[in-house]
Amino acid sequence: MIPFMRQMLLMVLLASFLSVGGVFFGAASQSFAISPEEQLSNPILEDRARGLSAQLRCLVCQNQSIDDSDADLAVDLRKQVRAQITAGLDDETILDNLQATYGDYILLNPPVNPATYLLWAAPFLLLGAGFALFWHYRRSARSAVADMSKDPEFAEEPSAPASDKAPISPKALGVLAVSIICTSFILYSQLGQPEIAAQPLSKRTAERDAAQAQDAKQDAALQEALMTAKQDVAQNPQSVESQLGLALAYARLDDFPNEIAALRRALKLADEAPIIKAMLAEALSRQADGQVTLPARALISEVLAAIPNEPRALFIAGLAAYQDEGFEQAITYWMQLAKTAPVRSPWPALAQRNIQLAAEEGGITLPEEWRPVLDEDDVSAIASASSDDQREMILAMVEGLEARLQETADDAQGWQRLIQARRVLEDEAGLLRALIGGARNFPDDKSVQLALLEHGLSGEPTQQWQDAAEQALDNLARLDNQGLEYLFFAGHLARLQGNANQAVIHFEALATHIEGIDGGFYDELMALIAELKTQ
Amino acid sequence: MSDKPKISQRPRLAFTLPIAAFFIFAVIAAVGLFGTINGTRQSDQLPSVLVGKPAPELPVTAFSDDLSKPLSEFSGQPVLVNVMASWCAPCRAEIPALALLSEEVPVIAIAYKDKRDDTAKFFAQYGNPFSAVWMDYDGSYAMKWGIYGVPESFLLDGQGRIVLRHAGPIFKDTISDVIMPALEALQ
Q: Rounded CA gap, A176 and A532, in Å?
């Protein structure tokens, strides 16, 4: 039976070559590309249109039919096919017309003409050649066996010698078949791209529709906010806040001319307040696609002359320098911003990021404490790791930062980044450690003291926080002992420590400051004071 | 015994022939594959059936009165018809080369699926090397030229017949390698 097995293998091998020809008969795939507005109302004509579209190649994405593709050209071609169907042309004429402009290539089924005879005939020629070989081989093998059975030398064992003399054993054929398959796999793994995910149009369309619905909802909310802001301005035409609210509403709608007009009115009402001037400069820059214009620059220098550390002005000044390719100057502005802006504002993080950008762009080496916690190698390492590993890696880097700050504690940037990192990681104990470290090492930084104090407001205050908070409160008292924040936290801490009298004193002082301000806080405070007095 | 060599030779042929056929096929496939990978085989330059045929009609709406010359006004000399659009990035890239080429042959633009305002802005920003500009608002005229993407360019001889189609932007080496040889062949 061994010769038979060999024949089987040969047939398998031949069949694998013939499968090349099978490409022509590949099944048409399901399509979703066609959009409803293209469809013809008459179902019979629409059916014809779909049938024709499936036969036409999209010349942009060349292995798809125009029925499957949502390329611009495919849409145009589909419309043309439908227009010609509606005009009453038959299928053949429509295909001929398209072939006349776009050539044979537009037909997914190559036409039978002298140039394609070989292409069409190849599968049948190969099949015929295979059968001829097979038949020839069988016949000669049979005649050989017959010859040998006549030969007295081989009469006793007629079949075994025949297989011994076979040119290649079935085993070798098997090895060859396996190695061809293995080679194909290796080639595919090198050149193929299995990681490219399928993106069916139906899914994309659903995503797009969801996004559009979301946008529409957001847009409606923004329009409503604008209406409210307009009413507010109509009621309080002299109020700076109302004008600023209106400017913000316009800014969210990307309506820069109206935003700028509102800011100009606010600026006039607020006696040219530098903070509003900086906002105006920002709006002017946004209107100019992010370019800091000359009027904006003039405003910024006025602001910085009045308030040297105004964060928005510092940021825009840095941006202006950056756009002039004065990267050193830009970094100077942004470093000043990162050092002086409140920790809890978005400015330090923005400044930090821009400093990295400017350093990269200008080829400037930053001092150690300004370098990012994660450099490019770290980021790419994190990106390629699994999500569990990612967290591990980030944790390790943050631990590294904390260890470094234990040794060189006078690095304000470092503490800010550590606080930010712990907050993002939602590591409560680590955040408290970072806040305490920051507040202790920078007793003159009001915002760090406040950040530490605020931390105790969420959740049950720990003893560790209370100890640190007392120190922070002392620092705060030194900086500003009549500030609202100081009065609030002094009262809060006294109350926690069971010192009702002390708490009442501070809360009453606070109440005198906020009397008349809208919102329920004043009433709540008075209720709290009353409650404390009964203790 | 005299038949024995015959036995061992015939099956050997039967076996080696398909293997040889497979390797020939593999070599052809590999040449095509690596040609595509390193760019010597350009599947984007599809042959145009319009080469050798009279050029299809231009759109009926001109960009402006002074840029409304019909093809007939250029008859007797070769022209280049460039299908472009203000929204297409490669079309911006080819403007300098087209400006250079316009010293040799008049260049006519078909603004494909474009808005007049956008085309005007495009010319203001990147320059206008065209002797005539025709607006194909819905892309239906460009389809008659068999285009499948912008930019695409057609070289017409003095009789208004298409002699060359180039898909993709025209750069300085496209002029020296493709267009100038075709122009010289016309003379």
A: 92
Task: Read off the pLDDT band of A424 (50, 70, 90).
Answer: confident
Q: Is the pTM of this model over 0.80?
A: no
Give the angle subtended at the CA of A412 by the CAs of A406 and A418, to the nearest 5°: 60
Which residue does chain B place closest to A132, by CA atoms? B14
Cis preceding linkage at B151, omega within 30: yes
Whether residue A30 has pLDDT greater than 50? no
User: Rounded to a whole number, what is the distance in Å from the CA of A196 to chain B's nearest CA?
Assistant: 18
- The first and second tokens of residue A62, run together, are 């060349």
Residues facing residue B84 across a β-bridge: B111
Q: Where are the alpha helices (DSSP H) in A27-169?
A: 43-55, 72-86, 91-102, 117-150, 159-164
A69 close to A61: Cβ distance less than 8 angstroms: yes
Q: Angle A170-191/A2-18 helices, nearest 10 degrees? A: 30
User: Which of A20, A100, A129 comes nearest B49 by C-beta?
Assistant: A100
Complex ipTM over 0.85: no
| Residues in A 32-91 with any Cβ partner in B closer than 8 A | 59-60, 62, 72-73, 76-77, 80
Domains along the sequence of chain A with CATH: 39-111 (1.10.8.640)
Going from the C-alpha of B121 to that of each of A72, A287, A476, B12, the distances in angstroms are 23, 19, 59, 73
Contact A103 B146 (CB under 8 A): yes
Is the Cβ–Cβ distance between A525 and A510 less than 8 Å? yes
A189 CB-contact burial (10 Å; exposed 0-12 / middle 13-18 / buried 19+): exposed
SS3 content of chain B, % helix, strand, coil (to 5): 45, 15, 40
- A281: pLDDT confidence band, cut at 50, 70 and 90? very high
pLDDT band at A318 (very low <50, low <70, confident <90, very high): very high
Contacts of B182 (CB under 8 A, 6+ apart): B155, B163, B164
A99 in contact with chain B, both atoms CB, cutoff 8 A: yes
User: Touching check for B4 and chain A: CB below 8 Å?
Assistant: yes
